[in-house]
Design goal:
single chain, mainly alpha, Rna Polymerase Sigma Factor, Chain: A, Arc Repressor Mutant, subunit A, 2 domains, WH-like_DNA-bd_sf, transcription regulation
Length: 189
């Protein structure tokens, strides 16, 4: 597991928040709200459901933070809570369709000098959005949030082998969408 300055700072915030530091809690929420909401958007059918699930998750995180044994586990633990909240929301909806949400808000394009890069990135993001939610979430947690397979397994509440399988299938589907000729060659091998 890579421990960069951001992860170390998050660990400090979690530790301080656990000991009752309100400012640390507020900063932790400020830093993690966009990540948790993006994760909920990947797993939900709509923005309203994702926002509600994220809000409910924050309540659960606040109540359970003192029981978190290892501050290093916070990312996977918090993401797992969001995952479970999204699953509950989906069950409550009984598959009822929500109004569609323009997912461009989920993964904003970074500012780049190259227009060609922006077009390529937009094409890749559009392909990512076409994946099933479980594969989209797994791929995004791995490549965009830089979580390990073990952390993703915790976050999605699935075995590590399932994470690896989802990554494999998601990559194959993306390859086929982004380069149909190359994807066909890999599918035959």
């Amino acid at each position: 597991m890579q421990r960069d300055a951001g992860r170390i700072y998050d660990e400090y915030l979690v530790s301080a928040a656990r000991s009752g530091d309100r400012a640390a809690w507020e900063r932790l929420v400020q830093r993690w709200q966009p990540r948790l909401l993006r994760h909920a958007l990947r797993l939900s059918d709509g923005a309203d459901s994702a926002r509600d699930s994220t809000q409910e998750a924050w309540i659960e995180i606040f109540r359970g933070l003192h029981r978190l044994d290892d501050v290093v586990a916070f990312p996977a633990w918090a993401l797992r809570i969001v995952t479970r909240r999204c699953q509950r929301a989906w069950r409550r909806q009984d598959g009822a369709a929500e109004e569609s949400f323009d997912e461009r808000h989920e993964l904003p394009l970074p500012e780049q000098d190259s227009a060609e890069f922006a077009v390529d990135l937009q094409t890749a993001l559009d392909a990512l959005r076409q994946l099933p939610p479980s594969q989209r979430a797994t791929l995004a947690l791995y490549h965009l949030d830089h979580l390990s397979v073990a952390e993703i397994a915790i976050a999605l509440d699935v075995p590590p082998g399932t994470v690896k399988t989802r990554l494999m299938h998601a990559r194959r589907k993306l390859r086929a969408m982004l380069d149909p000729e190359q994807g066909a060659h890999h599918g035959q091998a």
